[in-house]
Amino acid sequence: GESVGLHLPTLSVQEGDNSIINCAYSNSASDYFIWYKQESGKGPQFIIDIRSNMDKRQGQRVTVLLNKTVKHLSLQIAATQPGDSAVYFCADYDNNNDMRFGAGTRLTVKP
Amino acid sequence: GAGVSQSPSNKVTEKGKDVELRCDPISGHTALYWYRQSLGQGLEFLIYFQGNSAPDKSGLPSDRFSAERTGGSVSTLTIQRTQQEDSAVYLCASSHYTGAYEQYFGPGTRLTVT
């Protein structure tokens, strides 16, 4: 079956550096994507979204890039801070509103 | 305003016992979702409600799992005759309506079956 997955299960970065978290999807009908952040002991929290008619969207310190040709999604976090340490999930929606989550990438920020 | 709340936050039960997990969605949200998250894993969709009805029960892993929602608000997820493989964090989320993509998650209930 088709699925959303992540290239790396863990990522460790130095405080102040930029972080890039990747996600691959296989459903060609996916037209909407969300990145969620899940801190320890909490539920996932919406960070940023992007529709398939866009290839880039910026938020506060975060940027999501979408490459539909290779079905790849990335989340870039600028000037990573200790509070960014969490598990990050991508999720995709297709035109039937079916949603799938990836396994998640654990980001650890070293002081 | 108040977010999604879940209770209990932690539940330890013996194998074979029944458990009931509760979710209070954000007021006014008509869509409600249940997910299961095993340790170090992603989110596994279980069931969603639009109002009080559950048009999609495809994610329930077995007939030991059931869920209901009354009054378009509170939902309960019941697991009968619990097994050790049921141990996981059970997350509830709500959204304004089924077509609203952004879901607001509760803190989850950590279920441990001994």
Q: Class by helix and strand content of chain A? A: mainly beta
Sheet with the most strands of chain A?
6 strands, mixed
**What share of the residues of chain A lie within helices?**
under 10%
The level of helicity of chain B is under 10%
**Please, what is the oligomeric state?**
heterodimer
Strand/helix succession of chain B: EEEEEEEEEEE
Shape of chain A: globular
Largest interface (CB within 8 Å) is between: A-B, 19 and 18 residues
| Total beta strand runs of chain B | 11
The overall average pLDDT of chain B, rounded, is 90
Distance between the termini of chain B: 37 Å
Structural class of chain B: mainly beta
What is the approximate shape of chain B?
globular
| Total count of helical runs of at least 4 residues of chain B | 0
The fraction of residues in strands of chain A falls at over 45%
Q: What integer is the average pLDDT of chain A?
A: 87
Low-confidence parts of chain B lasting 5 or more residues at pLDDT below 50? none
What is Rg of chain B? 13 Å
Counting DSSP E segments of at least 2 residues, the number of strands of chain A comes to: 11
Beta-strand proportion of chain B: over 45%
Please give the alpha-carbon distance between the first and last residues of chain A: 41 Å
What does this structure look like?
The complex is a heterodimer of chains A (about 110) and B (about 110). Chain A is an all-beta fold. Chain A has strands spanning about 5, 10-15, 20-25, 30-40, 45-50, 55-60, 60-65, 70-75, 85-95, 100, 105-110. In chain A, strands 2, 4, 5, 9, 10 and 11 form a six-stranded mixed β-sheet that branches. Chain A is globular, with a radius of gyration of 13 Å. By secondary structure, chain B is an all-beta fold. Chain B contains no helices and eleven strands. Chain B has strands at about 5, 10-15, 20-25, 30-35, 45-50, 55, 65-70, 75-80, 90-95, 105, 110-114. In chain B, strands 2, 4, 5, 6, 9, 10 and 11 form a seven-stranded mixed β-sheet that branches. Chain B is globular. Chain B starts with a strand and ends with a strand. The interface of A and B includes residues 36 and 49 of A.
